[in-house]
Amino acid sequence: MKRLAIIFGIILFAALMANVECANPFVTVVGEGTVTVPADSITISVSVKSRDNNMTQAQDEVQKNMDKVVDALKSAGIKDEEILPGQSSGISSFHSSSKVCRTINNTTLCEINTEQISSLEKSAIVRLNTNDLSRIDRVVNVAESAGAKAYVAGYSLSDAKVAVADARQKAVANAKDNAKGMAEAAGVRLGKVVGISDYAYPDIGPADSYSGFGKEGMVQVTSYVVVTYEIVI
Q1: Cα(164)–Cα(222) distance, integer angstroms
Q2: Which residue of 1, 5, 195, 226 is surrounded by the most CB atoms within 10 Å?
Q3: Distances in whole angstroms, Cα of residue 179 to Cα of each of 15, 17, 80, 161, 230
Q4: pTM of the model as a whole
Q5: How many Å apart are CA 102 and CA 24, to the nearest integer?
Q6: Contact 16/195 with Cβ under 8 angstroms?
Q7: Does 210 have pLDDT greater than 60?
């Protein structure tokens, strides 16, 4: 809903500007273009955890464990600049209680047992400029073998210029198709372009799949344009 409101606002603004610049009738449309390309930058999340209720000891433990993981990654060929340590840390707590009652000599005695478990987690990010799945799997396996939890957290593009240009080209073509459809429905013809602009920044994120999850190793780039055409009556 927010995205539609922004687009309609842009259309209205573009229409007002075009009305000032162009004395002839005009039509303003939005075009959308999407391309899906292989990612060339992978983000891997690595985390270690301590369940020691003594926070001082827990901090020492997670730091020691993270140092062990980082050393293992470096031994596997990961460079210092590819590891961003200490990105986040958090404390989680679990509290439970149980009540056990027994009747002895017509007297009911109840015992309440409580348990509280705290854990401290520390995480780091490994960022690889590669789409080599074997290298990605190796990093995950090395981290897990060193005692960490590791998984691919995201895919991206280190340089999105080509993908953005391709998406924009599709968006312009889509805008023209939309304008033609509107003109034909009104019984008029399109004239020249009198205004064109990008709609904010392109959307860049994991490619969608039918299952609702991102396609492994793929990035989706979507561009939006606002185009104003003259109307030939």
Answers
A1: 7
A2: 226
A3: 13, 18, 52, 27, 10
A4: 0.64
A5: 91
A6: no
A7: no
Q: Rounded to whole angstroms, how far apart are CA atoms 178 and 158?
A: 32
- ∠ CA 139-144-145, nearest 5°, is 100
Which residue range(s) make up the domain with 58? 41-154
- Angle (CA) 137-138-142 rounded to 5° is 120
The residue written with tokens 């590669």 in the block is: 130
Residue 121 has pLDDT above 60, yes or no: yes
Q: How far apart are CA 151 and CA 42, in angstroms?
A: 11
Of 152, 206, 199, the closest CA to residue 172 belongs to 199
Residues 46 and 144 in one domain: yes
Task: Examine the domain organization and report whether 60 and 144 are in the same domain.
Answer: yes
Percent of the chain's residues with pLDDT above 90: 52
As beta bridge partners, residue 63 has none
Can you tell me the distance from the alpha carbon of 218 to that of 36, in angstroms, rounded to the nearest whole number? 7
Which range of 78-92, 121-135, 169-183 scores highest in mean pLDDT? It is 169-183
Residue 31: exposure state from Cβ atoms within 10 A (0-12, 13-18, ≥19): buried
Residues facing residue 214 across a β-bridge = 208
Distance CA 223, CA 200 (A): 9
In this structure, the answer to whether residues 141 and 59 fall within a common structural domain is yes
Number of other residues whose CB lies within 10 A of the CB of residue 227: 23
DSSP at 80: G
What is the DSSP-derived secondary structure letter of residue 81? Answer: G
Which of 126, 154, 182 is at the close of a domain? 154
